[in-house]
Amino acid sequence: MLVQGGVTGILVQGSNGEAQHLSHDERKETIRVTRATLDEHGFQDVLVIAGTGGQSTKETKKLCVDAKEAGASHALVLTPGVWPTQMTKERILKFHRDVADASPIPTMIYNFPVVTAGLNLDSDVIAALGEHPNIVGTKLSCADVGKLHRLTSTLPASKFATFPGSSSVFLQGLVSGSAGIIAALPNVAPKVHRQLYRLWNEGNLVEAQNLQALLGHADWELQKLGSIAGIKAIVSKHFDYGNTNVRGPLTPQDLEVAAPSASSKLDELIVLEKFL
User: Fold this and answer.
1) What's the CATH code, domain 1-183?
2) Of 28, 61, 110, 191, which one is the catalytic site residue?
3) Residue 1 or residue 11, greater confidence
């Protein structure tokens, strides 16, 4: 569904992939199956990016090696967040550089304060890391468009790819020079995201803005449903694949008991996705 919908890469074990709920062997097997399935269906050109965040430098290095062995082309690295008050700028820089030095595949910086105890890398830190030859991009789930624009205007796109991590700022990111988007909502509506990207490239800003408004409302409704369980419930119900299972402490989302008004824009988005 995703590749046929127009995506050019798959992120395995990002925040919605429940990486923290999987053993190392399970994480490696998930990457392997993803790569093998894409290849089997003729999608060898589709990238597989693996989330390799760990809570120590040693563990993160090992996860990067595992990702390479399983078929990933890039590693998305979270900053460890167990000891946030001790993660100084110097330690953050050293962590990501040490991981990049050891990684057999290019790494990307994953900035997501919600899952790293509030650690929020600023544009100065990310730009400094972007000078490393094996650090090639970032996913900004902080939704800070100003930060995104500072990075795209500092680091050339040919060297460093900057992606917003939320569909709520997809168009804003494109206006600011982003390379695309890596987010949760494309799991539900890849064709709609591809349509917005096409409208932007064609210079049709009015229609792109209208579509962005829908994405913004739908993304907010998805967050209120619970993104991880919500996505699984939606694709299982509306697109007939996968299941609603999540690992504890999370619990499955029952769409039938959710208030109808809680997903009106999501429903509109799903109708459009099926139409395209």
Assistant:
1) 3.20.20.70
2) 110
3) 11
